[in-house]
Amino acid sequence: MGILVVGSVALDSVITPFGAKDDILGGSATYSSIAASYFTDVSMIAVIGEDFPEKHTSFLGKKGIDTAGLQKKKGKTFRWKGRYEQDMNSRTTLDTQLNVFADFDPKLSSAHRAQKYLFLGNIDPDLQYSVLDQMDRPNFVACDTMNIWIENKRDALLKTLKRIDLLVINDEEARMLADCSNVLQAAKRILAMGPKKLVIKRGEYGAILFGPRTIFTVPAFPVENVSDPTGAGDSFAGGLMGYIANVAKEDEISMRKGMVYGAVMASFNVTDFGVHRLGELTFTEIEARYREFCKMTLFEDFNKKDGMQFDLVY
Amino acid sequence: MGILVVGSVALDSVITPFGAKDDILGGSATYSSIAASYFTDVSMIAVIGEDFPEKHTSFLGKKGIDTAGLQKKKGKTFRWKGRYEQDMNSRTTLDTQLNVFADFDPKLSSAHRAQKYLFLGNIDPDLQYSVLDQMDRPNFVACDTMNIWIENKRDALLKTLKRIDLLVINDEEARMLADCSNVLQAAKRILAMGPKKLVIKRGEYGAILFGPRTIFTVPAFPVENVSDPTGAGDSFAGGLMGYIANVAKEDEISMRKGMVYGAVMASFNVTDFGVHRLGELTFTEIEARYREFCKMTLFEDFNKKDGMQFDLVY
User: Most buried residue, A21, A196, A236, B111, by most Cβ within 10 Å?
Assistant: First the structure.
């Protein structure tokens, strides 16, 4: 089945120890839609300004993404500028210009409303709620959020959390939302807020999936040439949700495989600026990297008969 | 086969957000020997002072550990005092009194020299080298180290690294030793220094095993009641080396299972102060936790026929 992705489309300026790029295609909806597009049909809901280059829209179209929900508004496109430090784990926001994103008000067509899989990227929780209200009857809804909403719009966020299946956030956000530094305690508190499942993203350490009685950990694929970590979390969520929509099953084993595909997409995404690498992948590359994750995590002789080779391509 | 463990025995004073304990049994050799003792026969080489309580020696004896190599010297036992902050990831050393440890000069008996498995805990690399020189012909040697040796005794450390099979260090030490912030690049540089394999411990994020062409990741078991992280890394190394000595094989699959047993031992160790929890485990508990690691990491239907249940006990 297809998936509906709602979030931001941005023009990012990124500085890392390995270079700098200005006004490149970015935003949560962009990264997650492109990642999901390798697995299923994607429709995107976002807002852009009059300055948004046509080549970006046509690039998204070439990835098979339905951009009918990409609303062009008077004014400039959302812009974000940030810098990563040497270890790539910490970043500083240098500038944020909301522009047309400040008045983003997602309106869904009847085709969008009928979608069965929905990913609510990191936007105002009131807007996330408004999208949920417009949907007919989705099978599975995942949602991201961030520190400013946790701090400033906590009640709206809690209202949204009661209606979703899966929350996908990072370590720091989980600790802030749960007001608790222990990851397992934090997970239990967050699951009690409503979501059926929780993914905590941990950057270069991978991610954990928590269910009421299940835990699944996926490592990050160690990558030597990390050029730009921007969008790694959204690529992860896009890969996970794209896979889930593709198999149209949300059972434990599908969620776990989706987590691995998410980690696969994130591992490719960080090796070049913006969506350069993410946007040019082949499914053969994705499947090969997925198999590397098998090799990297296996320790019982479950498949002794297949004679698993542990040697990796890295 | 049995294992020889060389390292420190200490009396630790530990302050955490959950309490404080004074002069409790600690030290790298203590934690790793106790962890290894669940898997194989352990002989310990370390130095203690006249003030070392007899009950500690007899406790080690009750764990089946050969303490003939525990040399009692004139003076006081090595003492360390530290404090953990709220998130348990950062600690501050408040006081270090080397005492008899300052003149530690490990002398091996002929029985010790004949051992086939050796773990060199975190001591001066010159002492580690001296132990290696005394050994007859070990099958497999693992070694730990720390920031002060990497900074102040780099040449001695590099000499030792050329003669070992496995280096077991943490993230920060790996980055310092390799002078490189990317973990995969750091691993490649360290493997080029001599060790055949490298384990990088990452605290609550687990650990990675690097071989020339293999990578294996093990998560940490998420634990709600972390009381005292002291000795987690040594418990990990002890579990890993104890398992390897037990099976007397160092092939890839044995190393991987050993990594999981290491993570099992560390996950129990952190739930109480000092060696309280680590020292009272049963093999049934260890095996049960090992199976939890299987559940927590599996994503392919390798054992479909067994109908893996993902539900965890946590």
Answer: A236
Residue A117 parent element (H or E) = strand A117-120
The size of chain B, in residues, is 314
User: Residue A301 above 70 pLDDT?
Assistant: no
Q: Are B46 and B70 in contact (CB under 8 A)?
A: yes
Contact assessment for residue B166 and residue B197, using Cβ atoms and an 8 Å cutoff: yes
Which of A86, A217, A252, A314 to mutate to probe the B interface, most B CBs <10 Å?
A: A217
Do the beta carbons of residue B36 and residue B106 sit within 8 Å?
Answer: no
The tens digit of pLDDT for each residue in A140-159 reads 999 999 999 999 999 999 99
In this predicted model, what pLDDT tens digit does every residue of B259-314 receive, in sequence order?
999 999 999 999 999 999 999 999 999 999 999 999 999 998 654 544 556 676 65
Average pLDDT over all residues of chain A:
94
Beta strands in chain B (DSSP E): 3-6, 10-16, 19-26, 42-48, 66-72, 79-84, 91-97, 117-120, 140-143, 166-170, 197-201, 207-210, 215-218
Measured CA to CA in angstroms, residue A84 lies from A204, B43, B184, B223 at distances of 14, 48, 19, 31
First to last CA, chain A: 33
How far apart, in whole angstroms, are the C-alpha atoms of residue B94 and residue B15? 10
Question: B260 CA to chain A: closest CA distance, Å?
Answer: 8
Q: A135 and A103 in contact (C-beta within 8 Å)?
A: no
pLDDT for A95-117, tens place per residue? 999 999 999 999 999 999 999 99
Cα–Cα distances (Å) from A274 to A37, A94, A234, A277, B215, in that order, read 16, 17, 12, 8, 27
Rounded Cα distance between A34 and B182, Å, is 27
| B296 torsion bin: left (phi>0), alpha (psi -120 to 50), beta (else) | alpha
For residue B87, give the nearest of A181, A293, A301 by CB distance: A181
Specify the pLDDT at position A305. 45
B152 CA to chain A: closest CA distance, Å? 24
* R_g over Cα of chain A: 18
The pLDDT of residue B190: 98
pLDDT value at residue A300: 85
Query: Once rounded to an integer, what is the mean pLDDT over residues B179-205?
Result: 96
By DSSP bridging, strand B3-6 and strand A207-210 are: unpaired
Residue showing tokens 């080779």 = A309
